[in-house]
Specification:
The complex is a heterodimer of chains A (about 350) and B (about 325). Chain A has two domains: about 10-325, 3-Layer(aba) Sandwich (Rossmann fold); about 325-359, no CATH class. Chain A has about 350 residues and is α/β, with parallel strands linked by helices. Chain A is built from 14 helices and eight strands. In chain A, the strands form two sheets. Chain A has a six-stranded parallel sheet with strand order 1-7-8-4-3-2, with helices on both faces. A two-stranded antiparallel sheet of chain A has the order 5-6. Chain B is of the alpha/beta class. Chain B is built from 13 helices and twelve strands. The chains are: A alpha/beta (about 350), B alpha/beta (about 325).
Chain lengths: ~350, ~325
């Protein structure tokens, strides 16, 4: 027998948990203003997320999927993308969406049970939240195919969780993207848990990055709690894709510090010890340490930032809570470009019955 | 509870699905089963619905009796290739050599403020497939008896569990291993003036409506369809022969729904018993809205009462 092919999976880290640089930092990480911009975005995402969880707990929001612990992955992806690129998220990418201009009000509307939250005023071409698992990876591949056909220097980015990589649609997306050298990057956000199922029970593969190998495309792992590494890897992958080099899979290793959603109770299936250990590696702390060592951050500035975040968030929440309940017409608006006659009759009936539900 | 009884009494029964093990299912329907029966008989699968249905077929062809949970009906679709192209017809294709004694359990319907894609009622998709039985319980007691029957049935059963039932209903159910019959509708309330057919979670609103109607002198007979496919036409037609009026209540969208099939049965075989046109109270032919409007979509007690009053007022 002879070896036909061998593969290896590389792992990238640029910022260790103590906030020390690992190896040579990319240009953006040597620019303190740029690092501050990312740190502020990560802090805002975390503060907003905490507020959203509180709103759910007090009955002012529906089920919500927290992004606690994912901030570096989210902001690293967002910062690597261009505005004209297209993002196809899962349902947890609050950080990336805020970076790309989805408003807090829109995010709250959506999780508050109102479709208007999917009508992003900022990134008009981005796909809405995707609750069905792994389906969005094919949408990203399709968008990339459109860019390729039209010779546009744009890329698509799909995120997907570790559990999602078990779905057929994910493999189909990798395969078609590889076969057609599409300008798409798949960011696997490996946070360790698919609700109650740990990655080790999800697959026998040592890494999720290696799933790219079978599709003939490059795959690598990055420290998903390291915003420098995520942005550097995503930027390189996007540059390659933009230049016609085809897709890449970037597996970001992070940890879901929260329950799966507010409807979940993770203490049923994982130990507090594990969560505590993971918390020590969380992404904000190391970025803050890095900035402090560079003389760009201190406790006062942190306090100011948190107060500023709180003001921004409170304004958005007030705006959201003041939003009137949609009328029953909203159920029929945008169902078709032109609502068929039979359904127009139902729209009238729904108006007549409105408010009879006793809720 | 029905899982536990049958797993205790039939070693061929296994449970598979996402988060059914340590977590006991997102609605806790399989709570404690893995501790009791071990991680081989109660298995968390990878996050892959096509795999869940396909593996169930393979297990069933080997003589096991899988109970497979799909986490929400909105996540069923990747599994439909396996269910429609294989599960429903393996017996038929192999002339009875290989069979699929499988129960596919899935939460069904809205009303619990769940996220997008978690609240739809798409039973019609399954009812249209030859070779599948489709069952939906309307109470904890019915869930117990019908699930036992579904597990014991030699063919695939799609078992649609109303999400409102997990949250709203509390009922003492004796764990006695007694199954209820499949393919049979249940008369929950006898009445002389009008027949109301409903199923699943809509039974609650329908019974409430019938109580309100009774206060105003309208005596409604309420039928719980229970098995949505095949439909127990006899029970419905016997009732219509008695009352002469038929109202059908379904949470699902109106177009080509199970209600349409019931209306067709009444029109084909009960037309001369009808004193008034058949009426349907249904969800609308639009996407199930996110939760701020879901109660506007789900038929209300008021809408049911109005429809019944309407049919009572219809001239002979």
């Amino acid at each position: 027998m002879r070896t036909v092919i061998e593969f290896r999976v590389e792992y990238l880290q640029r910022l260790d948990p103590d906030g020390n640089a690992v190896g040579e930092l990319p240009a953006f990480a040597r620019d303190p203003d740029e690092v501050l911009r990312m740190y502020r975005a990560m802090t805002l995402a975390r503060a907003f997320d905490a507020k959203a969880v509180n709103l759910q707990r007090t009955g002012q929001l529906g089920t919500y999927a927290s992004c606690l612990g994912h901030e570096a992955t989210h902001i690293g992806i967002g910062a690597a993308m261009r505005a004209e690129d297209v993002f196809a998220p899962v349902y947890r990418e609050v950080g990336t969406q805020l970076w790309r201009g989805v408003t807090m009000r829109e995010i709250l509307l959506y999780w508050g049970g109102d479709e208007r939250g999917n009508d992003f005023s900022g990134p008009r071409a981005d796909f809405p939240w995707c609750v069905p698992i792994a389906t969005q990876t094919l949408h990203a591949a399709g968008a990339a195919m459109a860019f390729k056909i039209r010779r546009e220097p744009r890329c698509a980015v799909a995120t997907i969780g570790d559990g999602g990589t078990s779905e057929g649609a994910f493999y189909e997306a990798l395969n078609v993207a590889g076969a057609r050298a599409l300008p798409v990057v798949f960011a696997v956000v490996n946070n360790g848990w698919a609700i109650s199922v740990p990655v080790a029970a999800q697959t026998a593969a040592r890494t999720l990055a290696q799933k790219a190998i079978a599709a003939g495309i490059p795959g690598l792992q990055v420290d998903g709690n390291d915003v420098f590494a995520v942005r550097e890897a995503m930027s390189a992958a996007l540059e390659r894709a933009r230049g016609g080099g085809g897709p890449t899979l970037v597996e970001a290793l992070t940890y879901r510090l929260s329950d799966h959603t507010t409807a979940d109770d993770a203490s049923r299936y994982r130990s507090a010890r594990e969560v505590d250990d993971a918390r020590a590696l969380e992404p904000l702390l190391r970025t803050r340490r890095f900035l402090e060592k560079a003389g760009r951050w201190n406790a006062d500035r942190e306090r100011e930032l948190l107060a500023e975040c709180a003001r921004t968030i409170d304004a958005a929440v007030a705006d959201h809570l003041a939003a009137p309940r949609p009328s029953t017409d909203a159920m029929f608006d945008h169902l078709f470009a032109n609502l068929p006659e039979r359904i127009r009759e139902q729209r009238i009936a729904a108006r007549r019955h409105a408010g009879t539900d006793g809720h | 509870m029905a899982h536990g009884w049958e797993m205790q009494h039939d070693p061929a029964v296994v449970v598979i699905g996402e988060d059914v093990g340590a977590n006991g299912g997102v609605f806790r329907a399989t709570q404690g089963l893995q501790q009791r029966f071990g991680a081989e008989r109660v298995q968390d699968t990878p996050l892959a619905e096509a795999a869940i249905a396909g593996i169930a077929i393979g297990m069933a062809a080997q003589g096991l009796k899988p109970i497979a949970e799909i986490q929400f009906m909105g996540f069923l679709y990747p599994a439909l290739d396996q269910i429609i192209n294989h599960m429903s017809r393996l017996r038929h294709r192999t002339r009875g050599r290989l069979t699929c004694p499988i129960v596919m359990r899935m939460p069904h319907g809205g009303g619990i403020h769940a996220p997008e894609h978690h609240s739809e009622s798409v039973e019609t998709l399954l009812c249209h497939v030859p070779g599948l039985r489709v069952v939906s319980p309307s109470s904890p007691a019915r869930a117990y008896g019908l699930l036992l029957a579904a597990i014991r049935d030699p063919d695939p059963v799609m078992f649609l569990e109303p999400t409102r039932l997990y949250r709203a209903s509390r009922q003492e159910v004796p764990d006695d291993g007694r199954a209820l019959p499949l393919d049979r509708a249940f008369v929950l309330r006898e009445g002389a003036d009008v027949t109301i057919v409903a199923w699943g979670a809509m039974i609650a609103e329908t019974l409430q409506a019938s109580a309100e109607l009774a206060d105003t002198g309208v005596d409604a007979e309420v039928i719980d369809l229970a098995t949505l496919s095949p439909i127990d036409a006899t029970t419905i037609l016997d009732s219509v022969a008695k009352t002469g009026r038929l109202v059908i209540v379904q949470e699902a969208a109106r177009n080509v729904g199970v209600g349409a099939e019931i209306a067709a049965i009444a029109a084909e075989d009960g037309l001369f018993d009808l004193l008034a046109p058949i009426r349907r109270v249904t969800g609308y032919d639009t996407v199930m809205p996110l939760h701020r409007l879901e109660r506007e979509y789900i038929p209300s007690v008021r809408r049911i009462v109005d429809a019944v009053r309407g049919t009572m007022a219809d001239p002979r």
